[in-house]
Amino acid sequence: MSCCGQKRQAMRAAPRPATTTAAATTMTTMTTPAVRDGAPLAQQTLIPIESTGVAPITVRGATTGIIYRFVARGRVLGVDARDAAGLLATAYFKRR
């Protein structure tokens, strides 16, 4: 039954898609220019929020819609002040 071997060989020879690291994903999310309520994100107040969970977590800010990606426990991200209260109301985040 050489057919299975041929499929494995074809898979090995096929180009693999490019991968990104979790850190690169986080940096992209946090550095992408965003405008909310007419003001650039850089001009809005950011609150340092730390992830307390053991697994990576992605959340969308309830007020701004900004996506925050925490890749590991202890990771600190700048969260828009309007989203911070919602994140801090859970057991997964704390103010740093």
Tell me the layout of helices and strands.
Elements: H1 2-13, H2 22-31, E1 35-36, E2 39-40, E3 46-51, E4 57-60, E5 67-70, E6 76-80, H3 81-88, E7 93-95
Total domain count: 1
Beta strand count: 7
Distance between the termini: 60 Å
- Runs in which pLDDT lies below 50 for 5 or more consecutive residues are 19-36
Tell me the β content.
Answer: 25-35%
Short summary:
This protein is α+β, with helices and mostly antiparallel strands. The chain has helices at residues 2-13, 22-31, 81-88, and strands at 35-36, 39-40, 46-51, 57-60, 67-70, 76-80, 93-95.
Describe this structure in words.
By secondary structure, the chain is α+β, with helices and mostly antiparallel strands. It has one domain. It has three helices and seven strands; from the N terminus they run ααββββββαβ. It has helices spanning 2-13, 22-31, 81-88; strands at 35-36, 39-40, 46-51, 57-60, 67-70, 76-80, 93-95. The strands form three sheets. The chain has a three-stranded antiparallel β-sheet. Strands 1-2 form a two-stranded antiparallel ribbon. Residues 19-36 have low confidence and may be disordered.
What key phrases describe this protein's structure?
3 helices, 96 residues
